[in-house]
């Protein structure tokens, strides 16, 4: 986030995020990240920018009852949802509110630090990465993921373009920021600059499904910070804006829309490195 507060969600947004975006998007990439990191039983694991906790819960299952998992996020609403969800088998999860820029843990606390689709939003990415390295034990490792180029993610590209056309230049900032680390070489330099070793970056594409373009747009406008763009509008005007966005995005995503719904590719870079 250019301004970290830009990614804060209010009211019912965390619940909507968990209900719609986690199963459709982040759960798929969470499994991918956890598989690549190859968590071992008994490991102490930190999930930075944990949101509603999809990565932390998977980590808890993998490290087992002899391991430990901490989930940290700046947003109290997201953490409230994380705490409310049923506990998983395996390690107990310690949920903490705090900033990735000043991790509230001593040096050499964790075996593994994870950060799924969050690094691009931090206002000081080098500091966040140095903090992750600081709290890792010697021989520890980091696993993180970020979205690939906007042009390789057609749904985001369609929505960002529609926002700028219909609401004015800059309206799509939150969506475009999601792809701020899309250049794999820039990502490599950033992570290496924080002191990590043996860095490997891989790129994968998964197919994301929503029942329709309309649901994709409405979920984005309700469960992410984009809600702040239309919240000030009177209800009738708000619905008019939403319908215009739905029409614009729907037209752009017609090649990805079938009778079964909207299915589109999404590209993500995953970086693994050692302390």
What are the defining features of this structure?
275 residues; alpha/beta; Rossmann fold; eight-stranded mixed beta sheet; 10 helices; 8 strands; disordered N terminus
Structure notes:
The chain is 42% helix and 24% strand. It is of the alpha/beta class. It has one domain: Vaccinia Virus protein VP39 (Rossmann fold). Strands 1, 2, 3, 4, 5, 6, 7 and 8 form an 8-stranded mixed β-sheet that branches. Helix 3 links the parallel strand 2 and strand 3 (93-97). The longest helix is centred in the N-terminal third of the chain and has 25 residues, at 13-37. It is globular, with a radius of gyration of 18 Å. The two termini are 25 Å apart. The model is unreliable at 1-10 (pLDDT under 50).
Average pLDDT over all residues: 94
Question: What's the total helix number?
Answer: 10
Just give the CATH class: Alpha Beta
> What's the shape?
globular
pLDDT < 50 stretches = 1-10
Main sheet: strands, sense, barrel: 8 strands, mixed
> How many whole angstroms does the radius of gyration measure?
18 Å
Structural class: alpha/beta
The tally of structural domains comes to 1
| Share of helix, binned | 40-55%
Task: List the helices and strands in order.
Answer: HEHEHEEHEHHHEHHHEE
Cα distance, first to last residue? 25 Å
């Amino acid at each position: 986030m250019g301004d970290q507060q830009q990614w804060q969600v209010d009211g019912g947004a965390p619940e909507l995020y968990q209900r719609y975006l986690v199963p459709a998007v982040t759960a798929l990439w969470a499994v991918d990240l956890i598989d690549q990191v190859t968590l071992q039983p008994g490991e102490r694991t930190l999930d930075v920018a944990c949101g509603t906790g999809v990565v932390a819960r998977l980590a808890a299952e993998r490290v087992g009852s002899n391991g430990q998992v901490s989930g940290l996020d700046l947003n109290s609403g997201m953490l409230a949802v994380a705490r409310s969800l049923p506990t998983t088998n395996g390690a107990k999860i310690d949920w903490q509110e705090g900033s990735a820029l000043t991790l509230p843990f001593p040096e050499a606390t964790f075996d593994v630090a994870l950060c799924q689709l969050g690094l691009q939003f931090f206002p000081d990415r080098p500091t966040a990465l140095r903090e992750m390295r600081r709290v890792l034990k010697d021989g520890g490792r980091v696993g993180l993921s970020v979205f690939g180029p906007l042009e390789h993610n057609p749904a985001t590209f369609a929505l960002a373009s529609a926002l700028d056309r219909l609401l004015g230049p800059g309206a799509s900032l939150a969506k475009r920021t999601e792809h701020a680390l899309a250049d794999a070489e820039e990502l490599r330099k950033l992570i290496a600059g924080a002191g990590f070793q043996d860095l490997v970056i891989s790129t994968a594409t998964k197919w994301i499904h929503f029942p329709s373009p309309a649901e994709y747009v409405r979920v984005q406008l309700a469960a992410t910070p984009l809600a702040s763009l239309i919240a000030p509008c009177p209800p009738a005007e708000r619905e008019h804006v939403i319908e215009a966005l739905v029409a614009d995005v729907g037209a752009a995503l017609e090649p990805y829309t079938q009778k079964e719904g909207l299915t589109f590719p999404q590209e993500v870079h995953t970086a693994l490195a050692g302390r």
